[in-house]
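note to self: dont lose this again. the chain is below, predicted strucutre after it. 361 aa total, dont forget to put it in the shared folder this time
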Amino acid sequence: MNQDPRPVLVTGGAGFVGANLVDHLARTGLRVRIYDDLSATGADGNLSWLRRRHGDQVRATIADVRDRNRLRDAVDGVQVVFHLAAQVAVGASVIDPRADFEINALGTLDVLEAVRGHEPPAPVIFLSTSQVYGDLADLSVSIDGERWRPDDAALAAAGLDERWPHAPRTPLACSKSAADRYVLAHAGTFGVPAVVLRPSCAYGPRQQASDDPGWLAQLVLRAIDDQPITIHGDGRQVHDVLYVDDLIDACLRVWTRVDDLAGRAFNVGGGPAGTLSLRELLAMIEELRARKPTVVLRDWRPGDRRWYAADTRALADATGWRPRIGPRAGVTALLGWLLDQRTGRSQTLDNLGRIAGTHHG
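---
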């Protein structure tokens, strides 16, 4: 166990990924500071849940990431900053691009500057997004059964690596791309020990189905409630899905080697073996629920990808990280958690280790 008595700071610590990370850190005996404005759906409930589980071991500052004075206080004396606070909805970024930029780009810059104002600066692990690579519209793909697949066999086998150029197509992707680059620039210019992680589609317990990024949880929840599921496109579009516990494992592994890895960006995802097309996901839900969901097909939306898979070999080589929880085990666990929320019981997550079984089951 980490013996450093200094607290860990998690910005956005009451959000979906943040709450899972804070819970893990506190369970290992660490003191955790949460910095969150509680604007995300479910953040109030997540914070209450964390306080019930961990008491004074978890302290919260309720403030906006754009508040530079509060940020300076929050980073004072911490041993590491996990910067997760963000505006994460594409739709919201289209409605208000300025707010999206201020939160994601300027907010990240303010976090970095607050850290740089202390000597020595605390390490920063920043969660960017795979959306910085854009919609991949120029990628040549063909239909292969229930999914799209790249015509380049090597790309299909390995996924996109970190050398793929940034080509953001939405305000959200633009603001996260700018934040991503500022983190790397602060490492190179100012010596801040900072690392960027570019997650693919993270999912799991505590994800709010009402949020834009919670599309997988939303789809599962609509199936639970026997509501029609709307699919844009033909349903063969392929998503790289990443169970939240695997994302947290990646964050922690990078932290242990942050001095060596500073100034680098890493993809983190399920990889080609951890992808699901929407048709495959619907079939999986039908099997797990023993009930066929009702599906409504709509036109493709601008910016929709037909295929994405992360090449995570750089992260594996640097830290030994591998995704442990494949799509079937992860969707099963998410389905169980969502059912538990409906019934008020908690019975499925304790069995995750058993149902995860084999890699990418």
